[in-house]
Amino acid sequence: MEYLSAFEGNSYYGIVAACFVVLVTLVSTVYMGKMKTKRRGIEDQVGGEPGYAMRNARKSELLEVPSEGATTMAALFEQSCKKHSQLQCLGTRKVISKEFIEDGKGRKFEKLHLGEYQWETYGEIYDRVCSFASGLVKLGHDVNTRAAIFSDSRPEWLISLQGCFRQNLTVVTIYASLGEEALIHSLNETQVSTLICDYKLLKKLSAVYSRLQTVKNIIYFDDGEAAVDSNLSNDMSNWVITPFSEVEKLGKNSPVSSQLPVKTDIAVIMYTSGSTGLPKGVMMAHKNLVASAAAVLTVIPNIGSSDVYLAYLPLAHVLELVAETVMICAGMRIGYGSTLTLTDSSNKIKKGTKGDASVLKPTLMATVPAILDRVRDGVLKKVADTGGLAEKLFNFAYGRRYTAMEGSWFGAWGIEALLWDLVIFNKVKSILGGDIRAMLCGGAPLSGDTQRFVNICVGAPVVQAYGLTETCAGGAFSDFSDTSVGRVGPPLPCCYLKLVSWKEGGYLTTDKPMPRGEIVVGGSCVTNGYFNNKYKTDEVYKVDENGMRWFYTGDIGRFHPDGCLEIVDRKKDIVKLQHGEYISLGKIEAALMASNYVVNVMVYADPLQTSCVALVVPSRQVLEKWAQQAGIEFKDFSELCDKNEAVAEVQQSLAKEAKAANLDKFELPAKIKLLPDPWTPESGLVTAALKLKREAVKAKFKDELEKLYK
């Protein structure tokens, strides 16, 4: 046997050792085989349109509540606050100093020196919620009025939300990065009477003051700022503008009884980020949010008060709202940060000081693919810049760990794995604090390469999830023990996932080896529909003969034999070219994003043409490094993006990734345009969750797209 070749002389100890290796290898192989064939989802018979339906293997019935009596968001929050009253709850970092630096081009950038986290207990937060709720009543609110929250994530955001819930007020959530037209549309459509916002957003409100029809009160997070500028006050003279702290004080001095909701009351009208046109307001009942939170609680192993969560995504996004609800249920600490202060090298962190992750040392984080892509690119750049033996050592260690993660005994296991952690990967882990035990990724498709890279370097599962605003993030959630990539896991225990055949697109539930079709979600997490938009609601929401609500997602998926879902396409992204070939824009974009040159890409296809084209935002660091090595001269990045050599280099890289993804020849963009400026939520070209706003990009770069077809 080959296992014996390492033991010369066939000594007794050599034979024993060899047998031990054989035994452990066989056990490992059997174990890995069981892991790969474990049933995570089970086919089930349900009502509604015929299709292939699946439920979570953990539960025979759908979950609706995390604990007895917690049927609403208000009840769930109160239960947890009373149970964990002495434990730390919400934390923020104190700003020690601010300074502005110039980049040599006249642009100024703010740099922050932030201190340690300062905490309030669950009991203290609950008291603040009750005070704020009473203050709202004193300002004239009742169940017939709506309040909106227009702010970045922070403790006061959550306090405002729960304060409204204690008086059964429906909360309208709006991204802080939302453009003026979308902001006006959201507030006017829902007839908001009170707007709760950051102090820094008052100027944005002042600019649209005359176009807001129903707003009467503004409550702003004061943060020790001076009183509102008199010019702003004059601009918004018909509004009553009150500091958040004053509303709390008003309610604390004059408490009123709560008017608690029931589970069918609308808790939130959440405005989507509007990837196509104006945003739609999704009506979420209390029972919808509670069901999703209850389900997630069951699939995160050993979650409890010893965990620490880093909150930096927008709470106006359903992923973050449900995640923080789950953490509250578990009695965890939630420390607030931002994407600009997340790590020691983040844009707003003063050199030599610590980012949020280094100070907080979280054990759990939610994230979106764009953030993980940045982590991967940053690590690879640092490794490449170091070069030499360090780069070779990293690549060797990564290869060994990769082999092990793919299920082979001949990778880095046991003592060897600990050695590589000590020498290589602990340095990468420290970027996010060093204590991460799991990361939840959702909001958009995550590439398998990035998932595996972060998984290996951080040393913790990167758990993919699938859900939508319309399903309160309910959908699919990967098991922590599932080491595969590219899948989003089995159905959450709060819902069914059903595939319905889409004959026009060629996706059928009878397909072999796996059933395929449009993904439809059913269960308590499915929301009530779109506010003031019955036509669109009736188009994508259905109620079956048993009274269960179903949401038709427009996404195309397939079920693996173990019951896990994989997203393979999207109905809206499919375009038929002139010669009859169908191409999926989203599938092509996902493949091209694997190129190190690509930060963002949008593929465009004119049905009257025989090929597609693409707009590419290249990585400045990667492209400039290539240009320097290739001897390409350029004055600035814009000039480099226009050079034929740079376009050819990026296009060659795209062709390589297209081939690796088995794309057909007609799916590879025939021409590309390199764009030097990044696409940000502020530019209106991507959503707050960094998903592509296809129509906005098409409109902005209409001329460039037309030139690509000439």
TrEMBL record:
What InterPro entries does the database record attribute to this sequence?
AMP-bd_C_sf, AMP-binding_CS, AMP-dep_synth/lig_dom, ANL_N_sf
Q: Does this UniProt record's set of keywords contain Magnesium?
A: no
Please, which domain of life does this record's source organism belong to? Eukaryota
Task: Give the GO terms filed under biological process for this record.
Answer: phenylpropanoid metabolic process
**Mind telling me which Gene3D superfamilies this protein's record contains?**
3.30.300.30, N-terminal domain of ligase-like
What are its GO cellular component terms?
endoplasmic reticulum; membrane
Q: In which pathway does it act?
A: Phytoalexin biosynthesis; 3,4',5-trihydroxystilbene biosynthesis; 3,4',5-trihydroxystilbene from trans-4-coumarate: step 1/2
The keyword tRNA processing is assigned to this record:
no
Please report the stretch or stretches of sequence annotated as the AMP-dependent synthetase/ligase domain.
112-531
Its name, as the record gives it, is AMP-dependent synthetase/ligase domain-containing protein
Source organism: Daucus carota subsp. sativus (Carrot)
